[in-house]
Structure formats: C-alpha cells, structure tokens
C-alpha cells in the first residue's frame, strides 16, 4: 500500500510537470497518460513488494537475507521503478515529439528524438534522487544498529527518518541540476524535416521535471 501511495504521488508530479507539447487529435494524450500511469503505479508497487513477499513466503530469515531484502534491495528497486513510471507516463513525448526552439525561442519543429532525450534525462535524475535518498540511509542505519547506538526502537525510527529527510533534501537540488531544464540537442541529431528548416547548430527543448 505504501509503495502504491509513493508511486501515485511521484507519477502525479511527473504528469503535471512534463513537457506539454504533445498533441494528437485522434485521442486524448492526457487520458492516455492517466491510464498508463495507473498501470505503471500498480506494476511498480507490486515489484517493490515482491522481495519481502518472497522472504516471508519462504521464511528466509537469515541475517544476510534480512540485510539484502529489507535494507539494501528496496532503494535501487525504488529508483528503478521511479525511472520506469517516468518513462511510461511521459511516453507520448517520444511517440509524438516535443517542440524544439532556436536561441531566440522560435519553435522550428516537433522532434521525437528530443522527446526521447528529455524523458531519458528526467528518468535518470528521478532514479538518482530516490535511489540515493533511500540507499545511503539504509547503509548508515545498518552500522548504527550493529553499534547499538540507538537504544530504543523509537530512537532508531527517528534517526532513520532524519537520515532519509536529510539525504532527500540534499539530493533534490543535485537531481534537478543533473540535466539543464532547458535541454540542448545538436541539429545533426534531429529529424531530416527539422534539419531543412533551420541552420542553427544547436536547438533547445523544455525537459520537464
């Protein structure tokens, strides 16, 4: 359930803050994104719960298994599923393309390649944000538990929450600055119809968040 809530929030954020270029008369892009988002949320939540399900189902209770499944595996899995939901929800951007502009802000065309680049960059930044924000605290808390630094479960939970919040706050500006908001793409990497419409060597697009 908590996995479902988390991915619902991040998918809604992605839906609101994507590139708004994509248009198609034969169907509603927004409607398609909502349906794709619901599917991606359900899939990501199930995948996130699979390791713990198997551990409990087959009573894999060894200390090493507990460390891997409960401490180390959820963070990279969460980062991977976060990138997956971004790619699914924003799939119309690389299917239909997004607007590319010259240095003066004049739109010179709609490019699928620019859309693919924008979605890929956003997915990577989202994976880095959530993967790091949950992996580093898990590693740190493992050593805290071994050293018996926190004496009570409440103190341990408070310390874990403080670590996650601190790393997440630190990673937010890092993930947003991994790729510029106004992305650049070389003219040679674009479609032939755009090549013929401008002499600019570099064009620009809105990456989204």
UniProtKB/TrEMBL annotation:
The entry's cellular-component GO terms read:
mitochondrial inner membrane
Topology in the lipid bilayer is annotated as: Multi-pass membrane protein
Q: Where in the cell is it found?
A: Mitochondrion membrane
| Pfam families tied to this protein | SFXNs (PF03820)
Where is it chiefly localized?
A: mitochondrion
Chain segments annotated as transmembrane: 40-60, 72-89, 123-144, 156-179
A GO BP entry is: amino acid transport
Which InterPro entries does its entry note? Mtc
Keyword Transport (UniProt): yes
Task: Name one molecular function that GO assigns to this entry.
Answer: monoatomic ion transmembrane transporter activity
- Which keywords, in A-to-Z order, does the entry hold? Amino-acid transport, Membrane, Mitochondrion, Transmembrane, Transmembrane helix, Transport
Q: Which PANTHER family match?
A: SIDEROFLEXIN (PTHR11153), SIDEROFLEXIN-4 (PTHR11153:SF3)
Family to which this protein belongs:
Belongs to the sideroflexin family.
Q: What is this protein called?
A: SFXN4 protein
**Protein species of origin:** Casuarius casuarius (Southern cassowary)
Give the gene name. Answer: Sfxn4
């Amino acid at each position: 359930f908590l996995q479902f809530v988390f991915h619902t929030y991040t998918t809604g954020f992605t839906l609101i803050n994507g590139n708004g270029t994509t248009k198609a008369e034969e169907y509603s892009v927004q409607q398609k994104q909502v349906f794709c988002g619901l599917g991606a949320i359900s899939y990501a939540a199930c995948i996130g719960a699979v390791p713990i399900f198997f551990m409990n189902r087959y009573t894999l209770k060894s200390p090493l298994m507990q460390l891997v499944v409960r401490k180390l595996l959820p963070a990279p899995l969460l980062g991977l599923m976060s990138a997956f939901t971004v790619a699914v929800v924003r799939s119309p951007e690389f299917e239909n393309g997004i607007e590319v502009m010259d240095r003066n802000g004049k739109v010179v065309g709609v490019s699928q390649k620019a859309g693919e680049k924008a979605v890929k960059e956003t997915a990577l930044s989202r994976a880095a944000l959530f993967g790091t924000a949950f992996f580093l605290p898990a590693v740190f808390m493992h050593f805290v538990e071994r050293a018996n630094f926190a004496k009570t479960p409440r103190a341990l939970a408070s310390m874990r929450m403080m670590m996650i919040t601190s790393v997440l706050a630190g990673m937010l500006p890092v993930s947003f600055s991994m790729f510029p908001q106004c992305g650049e793409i070389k003219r040679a990497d674009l479609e032939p119809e755009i090549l013929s419409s401008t002499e600019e060597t570099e064009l620009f697009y809105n990456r989204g968040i």
